[in-house]
């Protein structure tokens, strides 16, 4: 006799291996998937109905004392159940009042995003489908970036050569930025930023076929970058620094990256603190996505970035990567930027940025397994290879014929 726990990804194969009838597999497979779903900011009536209906379908719900005491305040509910039970719950909630009719559908959508990581975004009339992952190669046109500051600053031809090299190494996006966002960095004026990045974007566009991203949060810079061929605006302020940039993104139909940052690059590492890290980041994205949608940006053009190192302690960065899949709830691709960052250096024993390749690879692979699909990195060739292996392991059942 041998007893073992089955990996979730192998359950259907094991059903087939023991010769379960195909119709039986269809009926039982949803019962094998168990999820804990958190619903935030519902009122007491809603919480009570959700709990009762969850119990009625065989699931369960954890509610705070406030629900039992019938206190008049917003509360959170944590549901526990199988996918099959959630399907039943969604049907029951659809018949309810108190604003509950759509909650069941949202639960099913959230589970779907969790299982099938969002991997599609749009640029103009073009839909970009991420096959496994995408590499965003970093091209800093700055004198003071923490890792490669000065390397391509003031030399357009050298920057172009590096862009071409990164595309050949597997980059699907070249991210060009002219203002350092390292901790403690001081802001530069718009004309300086334009002078640094626009000529490079213009020259790079003539040499590469891949997408070009402009790392900026200013409307004037973004507009000139788009005119010279940029496809994506990568805004570390998530459209907060210059609100006009949102209208520009909507008008030009380019892609946009919304990044979470606490404070500004100058202040962000001054004792950052969170009471509920993932909850606060989720609420930030909810508000920023709503702002973008209200100002004309289509949801399919948005990518989210949790902002590793931007107002986070080492422990915060680790928690974000560990719980990254929770951010799939928005149904948007997740970009992860860990490349050579200080938390890697600290964990590895205070090593210099140029000595953090192994740590970068480890963080990207962990992020990929947790749900990230776009990776902003300096070392394109090495990370690309590592993620190909990670992708092959994760999805080994899909492409076996091409490897044998």
Walk me through what this model shows.
The longest helix has 18 residues, at 277-294. The radius of gyration is 23 Å and the shape is globular. With 404 residues, it is α/β, with parallel strands linked by helices. Helix 7 (156-169) links the parallel strand 6 and strand 7. Strands 11-10-9-8-7-6-13-12 form an eight-stranded parallel sheet. A three-stranded antiparallel sheet has the order 1-3-2. The chain has a two-stranded antiparallel sheet with strand order 4-5. It contains 15 helices and 13 strands. Helix 3 packs across helix 5, helix 9 (219-227) packs parallel to helix 10 (244-252) and helix 14 packs parallel to helix 15.
Outline the fold blueprint.
Elements lengths: L10 H7 L4 H7 L5 E9 L1 H13 L3 E3 L2 H4 L6 E8 H11 L9 H13 L4 E4 L2 E4 L4 E7 L15 H14 L1 E7 L12 H16 L5 E5 L3 H9 L4 E4 L8 H9 L2 E5 L17 H18 L7 E4 L8 H9 L12 E2 L5 H6 L9 H14 L3 E4 L2 H15 L10
Parallel strand pairs: 6-7, 6-13, 7-8, 8-9, 9-10, 10-11, 12-13
Antiparallel strand pairs: 1-3, 2-3, 4-5
Helix pairs in contact: 3-5, 5-6, 7-8, 8-9, 9-10, 14-15
The helicity comes to: 40-55%
Shape: globular
Strand content: 15-25%
- Measure the end-to-end span: 32 Å
Q: How many separate helices?
A: 15
Q: What is the string of SSEs from the N terminus onward?
A: HHEHEHEHHEEEHEHEHEHEHEHEHHEH
Strand order of the largest sheet: 11-10-9-8-7-6-13-12
Mean pLDDT figure: 93
- Backbone CA Rg: 23 Å
Number of strands: 13
Structural class: alpha/beta
């Amino acid at each position: 006799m041998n007893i073992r726990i089955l990996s979730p990804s192998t359950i259907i194969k094991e059903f087939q291996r023991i010769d379960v009838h195909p119709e039986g597999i269809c009926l039982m497979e949803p019962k094998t998937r168990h999820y804990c779903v958190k619903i935030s900011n519902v009122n007491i009536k809603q919480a009570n109905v959700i709990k009762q209906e969850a119990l009625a379908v065989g699931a369960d719900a954890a509610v705070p004392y406030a629900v039992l005491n019938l206190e008049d305040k917003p509360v959170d509910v944590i549901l526990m159940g199988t996918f099959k039970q959630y399907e039943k719950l969604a049907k029951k909630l659809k018949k309810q009042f108190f604003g509950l009719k759509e909650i069941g559908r949202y639960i099913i959508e959230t589970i779907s995003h969790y299982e099938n990581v969002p991997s599609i975004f749009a640029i103009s009339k073009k839909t970009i489908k991420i096959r496994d992952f995408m590499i965003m190669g970093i091209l800093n046109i700055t004198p003071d970036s923490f890792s490669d500051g000065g390397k391509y600053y003031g030399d357009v031809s050298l920057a172009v050569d590096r862009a071409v090299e990164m595309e050949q190494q597997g980059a699907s996006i070249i991210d060009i930025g002219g203002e350092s966002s390292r901790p403690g960095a001081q802001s530069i004026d718009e004309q300086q930023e334009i002078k640094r990045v626009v000529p490079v974007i213009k020259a790079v566009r003539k040499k590469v076929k891949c997408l070009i991203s402009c790392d900026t949060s200013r409307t004037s810079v973004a507009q000139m970058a788009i005119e010279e061929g940029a496809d994506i605006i990568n805004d570390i302020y998530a459209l907060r620094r210059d609100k006009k940039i949102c209208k520009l993104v909507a008008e030009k139909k380019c892609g946009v990256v919304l990044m979470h940052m606490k404070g500004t690059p100058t202040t962000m590492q001054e004792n950052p603190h969170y009471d509920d890290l993932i909850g606060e980041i989720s609420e930030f994205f909810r508000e920023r996505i709503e702002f973008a949608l209200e100002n004309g940006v289509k949801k399919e053009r948005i990518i989210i970035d949790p902002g590793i190192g931007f107002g986070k302690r080492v422990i915060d960065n680790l928690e974000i990567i560990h719980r990254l899949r929770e951010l799939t709830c928005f149904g948007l691709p997740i970009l992860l930027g860990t490349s050579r960052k200080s938390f890697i250096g600290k964990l590895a024993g205070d090593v210099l940025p140029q000595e953090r390749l192994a740590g970068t690879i480890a963080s990207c692979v962990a992020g990929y397994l947790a749900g990230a699909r776009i990776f902003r990195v300096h070392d394109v060739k090495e990370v690309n290879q590592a993620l190909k292996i990670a992708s092959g392991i994760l999805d080994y059942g899909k492409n076996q014929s091409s490897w044998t």
